[in-house]
Amino acid sequence: MRAWYVVGKYPIYTDEKVTHTEITLATMSGSYGTFTERVIGDQTSKTNDELIKLARDAYFKSEYADKAMPEAVQKVDELSKKTAEYEKTIDQMQAAIDKSEKIAQLTTATLNELIDKMYPEEEATDGVTDETAKEN
C-alpha cells in the first residue's frame, strides 16, 4: 500500500467564505503518484493524516461510483425479487388463514345445530337457573 503525504491544502473561496478545500497528495513509496481532490468546508486546520483520509475518501467515491452504482442496483433488483416472493408467500398464508377461519365458523355453526337438536328441552331461560326458579 502506498504511503501518502500532503503536498498542499488550498482554501477555495465563494463570496469571501471558504466553501471547499483542495487537497493535493503525493506518494512517498512505490511508484510515483499524485492527485488533487476538492472536499467541502474549510479543512485547512486539520492534521495531515486527517487530510489524507479526506482526500482518499473523496477520490474513492468519485472514481469508483461507476462500479459501485451497478452493484447497488443489482442488489436492489435482488431485494425486489425477494420482496415479491415474500408477498406471494404472505398472500398464500393469508388465504390459508381465511380458509381456516371459514372452516372454524362452519364447524362452530354445525356443532351448535347438533347441540340444539340433541338437547332441545334446554332452551334459553333468559338467565333463570333451576335454583333461581326454586327460590321464586
Task: Walk me through what this model shows.
The protein has 136 residues and is of the alpha+beta class. The chain is built from two helices and three strands. It has helices at 48-118, 130-135; strands at residues 4-14, 17-27, 34-40. A three-stranded antiparallel β-sheet has the order 1-2-3, with helices on one face. A hairpin with a 6-residue loop joins β2 and β3. The protein starts with a strand and ends with a helix. The relative contact order is 0.08.
Which labels suit this protein?
3 strands, rod-shaped, 2 helices, alpha+beta, 136 residues, single chain, three-stranded antiparallel β-sheet
Layout of SSEs?
Layout: E1 4-14, E2 17-27, E3 34-40, H1 48-118, H2 130-135
Antiparallel strand pairs: 1-2, 2-3
Q: What fraction of residues sit in β-strands?
A: 15-25%
Write out the strand line-up for the largest beta sheet, numbering strands in chain order.
1-2-3
Inertia-based shape: rod-shaped
Arithmetic mean of pLDDT:
86
Helix content: 55-70%
The end-to-end span amounts to 101 Å
Low-confidence parts lasting 5 or more residues at pLDDT below 50?
none
Summed up, the helix count is 2
